[in-house]
Amino acid sequence: MRNFSKITLSVLLVASAAFTSCSDDDPKPEPVEESIYTRLGGTKMVPDDGEGNEGQMIEAGRLAFRKVVNSTVGLIVADVEANASGNLSAHFAPLLTEVGAGNTTKVAVLVDNLTDFFSFNTGGTNPVNTYSGLNMVDAHDPAKNPRMGTKSSDADYTKFVGYVGAAANTNGVPSSSQLYKDIVVVLQSLRAPIVQK
């Protein structure tokens, strides 16, 4: 009986020491910041407002990325049409040739792949967000990917990042927000494998 009392007393003393050693002066653990995907809506299911998707549901984070990707593609196409011989037109020449001939299948595949890539790499963990495309070096090397017209320069990639930023703004992510800044950090982390000339 006395042995049990000593053990109980020891446990109580250790527990009270642990509780009294914590004070308001002790540093608090930093809150874990939510992923970009979560801040874009995460896994919450929402109606898919895409063409032909009426009545279907989609994760809010994935939908947000798809909207930004679609807006980015629109800005690139507008740039190529305005500057047919410059800037990003050479990179997307194979794709634009198909679109000019009325075949938009590969554009839809590109949008889906980019949506997968960004969703997966920013916290989208559900299988719908799995990226199974080429790695960034191979995807941007015309010798390994016939969908790429030419290699990217640093200036080309900077222009692309600008288009993604403008597309994010268009879709409700202000340039001054931490979310926007975090998206730019992700894009900048991809510069080295993408820029190959």
Automatic annotation (TrEMBL):
<keyword id="KW-0732">Signal</keyword>
<dbReference type="InterPro" id="IPR012292">
    <property type="entry name" value="Globin/Proto"/>
</dbReference>
<protein>
    <recommendedName>
        <fullName>Group 1 truncated hemoglobin</fullName>
    </recommendedName>
</protein>
<feature type="signal peptide">
    <location>
        <begin position="1"/>
        <end position="23"/>
    </location>
</feature>
